[in-house]
Every structure is written in structure tokens, then in C-alpha cells.
């Protein structure tokens, strides 16, 4: 088990990585799934042998409220159907923490429940916010769970110029589920999970 890294350099590196992903040209992405709520693209990840996914959709709410529902905190468990538990293990500053969370089984339990320990950081970006994270090798792995690993991930949320009560939410996700899994099953699950994330989030914000 590694010791906890110093939060400031990790946060800075993580932010820079996400901003770089955000500037990748449209031509490098391939559409993986399209729904009324979001479009999901993918490209080969630079971090591991799977894909970096990009998801984007317009959400009818203000930036701060949307990000409060996504980042670690009491809202997330209420609406995210994939997340089954979440504990904040360490808090560094108001916008930096280490959390441990578990996810439900997927695809008729071909993908068994997973556990993740992530460093999470939320910061301003343009007129909106960026909330991002990366997994750490920290804490004991609980029985009955496979420990997954999130390579740099994040959500950019910025108000629409002509309609500030709506926000453009763009996510970058690259999750290494680990364990013995067919890659095709993982890819199917990732595209659907990201599309569902938007529809679930929209329902939660309307409450």
C-alpha cells in the first residue's frame, strides 16, 4: 500500500491532464453511443490498454448545483444507480479529498462489484467548474470486491453562453475494471453507463 501523495502537486497534474484531454480534436474521437441526453465517444487511452471515453450533453441547471451532485458528497449516492457506497477517507482542503466507493455488478453480473479509492479535486474552469479524480493504491481491499483503477477522469461543467440556466457537461472517463473480463463486455458497459449517468443526473436535479 502506498502512502498518500502530497495533494497540491497531484491536483495540479490532474487538472493539466484533463485540460489536455479537453483540447483533443474532434477527428480523434469515434462515436460509441448516442442518446437523447448525451453523446459518448471513445479513443484509445494513453494510460492503459482500454479506451478514454468522452461524454457530453446539455443539462438544465446551474453549474454549481450540477457539480455538487457529481463530486464526492451526500448527493451522489442518492441518485447514481451504479454507486453502492461511498466514504470520505481523508479531507485535505475543502476541494480535495480521498474517497473509497463501491459499484454494483453490471451486465448480469458478468462484471462483479468493484471498489475504488480515488483522489478527488474540484476547481474552477473558465466560467464553470472541473471536478476530477484518479485512483490511488491506498487502503485494504475489502473482501468480495475487485479493486478497480480510474486513470485520470473528470467532468467539465460550464454555463451555456446564451442560456446560463443550462450547462454543458463534458466527462472524460478511463476506468480499468481489472479482474478477468472480456474487453468487449467492458466497452459495452462503459458506453451505456455514461449515457445513463446523464439521464439519472437530470432526473435527480429535477427533484
From TrEMBL:
Pfam families: START. Residues 10-207 form the START domain. InterPro entries: StAR-like, StarD4, START-like_dom_sf, START_lipid-bd_dom. SUPFAM superfamilies: Bet v1-like (SSF55961). Keywords: Lipid-binding. One of its GO terms (cellular component) is endoplasmic reticulum. GO terms for molecular function: cholesterol binding; cholesterol transfer activity. It comes from the Eukaryota. GO terms for biological process: cholesterol import; cholesterol transport involved in cholesterol storage; intracellular cholesterol transport. This is STAR4 protein. It comes from Chloropsis cyanopogon. The lineage of its organism: Eukaryota, Metazoa, Chordata, Craniata, Vertebrata. The gene is Stard4.
Amino acid at each position: 500500500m502506498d502512502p498518500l501523495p502530497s495533494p497540491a502537486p497531484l491536483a495540479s497534474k490532474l487538472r493539466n491532464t484533463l485540460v489536455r484531454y479537453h483540447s483533443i480534436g474532434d477527428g480523434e474521437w469515434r462515436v460509441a453511443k448516442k442518446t437523447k441526453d448525451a453523446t459518448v465517444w471513445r479513443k484509445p487511452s494513453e494510460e492503459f490498454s482500454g479506451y478514454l471515453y468522452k461524454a457530453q450533453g446539455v443539462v438544465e441547471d446551474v453549474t454549481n448545483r450540477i457539480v455538487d451532485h457529481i463530486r464526492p458528497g451526500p448527493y451522489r449516492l442518492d441518485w447514481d444507480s451504479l454507486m453502492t457506497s461511498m466514504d470520505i477517507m481523508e479531507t485535505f482542503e475543502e476541494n480535495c479529498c480521498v474517497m473509497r466507493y463501491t459499484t454494483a455488478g453490471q451486465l448480469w453480473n458478468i462484471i462483479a462489484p468493484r471498489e475504488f479509492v480515488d483522489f478527488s479535486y474540484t476547481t474552477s474552469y473558465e466560467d464553470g467548474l472541473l471536478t476530477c479524480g484518479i485512483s490511488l493504491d491506498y487502503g485494504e481491499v475489502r473482501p468480495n470486491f475487485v479493486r478497480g483503477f480510474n486513470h485520470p477522469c473528470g467532468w467539465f461543467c460550464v454555463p451555456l453562453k446564451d442560456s446560463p440556466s443550462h450547462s454543458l457537461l463534458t466527462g472524460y472517463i478511463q476506468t480499468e475494471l481489472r479482474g478477468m473480463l472480456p474487453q468487449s463486455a467492458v466497452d459495452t458497459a462503459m458506453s451505456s453507463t455514461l449515457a445513463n449517468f446523464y439521464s439519472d443526473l437530470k432526473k435527480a436535479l429535477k427533484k
